[in-house]
Amino acid sequence: MKNMNFMYLMDLIDDKYIVEAKMIPKTKADFIGTSRFTSFLSSAASVAATVLILGAIFIWTLVGKDILGPHQSSNNTSSDETTDPPITTEPIVYSEGLEFELNKEKDGYKVMGIGTCEDTVINKSEAKRS
Amino acid sequence: MNDNQIVEMLFLRSETALSSVQNKYGKYCYQIAYNVLGNDSDAQECVNDTYLRVWQSIPPNQPKNLLAYIGRIARNLSLDRLRKNSAQKHRSSATVILEEVSDIVSDGYRDFSDDVFAKIAINSFLEKLPAKDRKIFVQRYWYSYSAKDIAEYIGKDEYFVNVKLARLRAKLKVHLEKEGIEL
Question: For a tag site, which of A44, A126, B18, B80 has the least CB within 10 Å?
């Protein structure tokens, strides 16, 4: 460290000159010079807001999957769909009153239950949307 | 709360006075400490030490000018820390000053604290200067603002400030030699 005599000599400057030369604190200093508590509060608020947003997204994702389910959404673009076998144009014919059970391996979509349907002609994509 | 009220509250040992000092002079002290040390954490510690020193020294001291009194404490604490951190690698505005004035400072430590002649010499030098030059001098060598900061503040370029400071240093050197003050 260099000799600091000059800096100590400057300490003898009168108060009136110190007051006269006082500068307005810089913007940077305003920013950095805030108390640590204020800085902590602002940073804590930012972290809390981020956690809340991420938490909300996470919960929304879970609830969306569990409650709505991928088959309830018409706009579902989950990876399940991408693994579906290619849809063929071959029609499936059902008769009125006929009980049937859909089979994934056979028909290419997930089994949802057993029921009846009217005499109609649908293809696999229509069946899936229903 | 004005400065007189703050001092009165300090005499009554009221901690409210200390929070008033923090609110009113916190940024001011930080600016001085940061100019000297060039480091946020060190500057912040110096500011906290300044509050403590104010609390310990008032009373018995009863400063007439609280701004200058607190500024002096912050500056001296910062200079002490700078001297102790002689191995610090980063440059601050104060370390640049020490390089600037190396040609007018001799080797060896001199204690100016009770040197009345030195006090008269430096203040008579300042008194003779035009107010604008005096402000630039004090801003640079007491507050340790960088030439760039001063240039922005007065609306001139950095070169102007550096030339002005070089001339003022040369004048000071002649003045101190004339007054028999050796740095």
Answer: A44
pLDDT at position B74 is 94
- pLDDT tens digit sequence for B8-25: 999 999 889 999 999 999
For the entire predicted model, the pTM comes to 0.64
Tokens of residue B2, six digits: 């004005």
CB-based contact, A8 to chain B, within 8 Å: yes
- Are the Cβ atoms of B71 and A12 closer than 8 angstroms? no
Burial group, residue B165, by CB count within 10 angstroms (0-12, 13-18, 19+)? buried
Closest residue by Cα to residue B97 from B56, B36, B40: B36
Q: Do A21 and B142 touch (CB under 8 A)?
A: yes
The helix or strand, by DSSP H or E, that contains position A93, with its residue range, turns out to be strand A92-94
B-chain CB neighbours of A37 within 8 Å are none
| Torsion angle defined by CA atoms of residues A9, A15, A17 and A18, in that order, rounded to the nearest 10 degrees | 80
Q: What is the pLDDT of residues B77-99, one digit of tens each?
A: 998 888 887 666 667 777 778 77
Taking phi first (over 0 means left), then psi (-120 to 50 degrees means alpha), and beta for anything else, what does residue A108 get?
A: left
Give the contacts of B151 (CB within 8 A, at least 6 positions apart): B157, B158, B160, B161
Unique residue bearing structure tokens 């997930």? A110
**Is the previous residue joined to B130 through a cis bond, with omega within 30 degrees of 0?**
no
Most A-contacting residue of B18, B30, B40 (CB-CB within 10 A), to test interface: B30
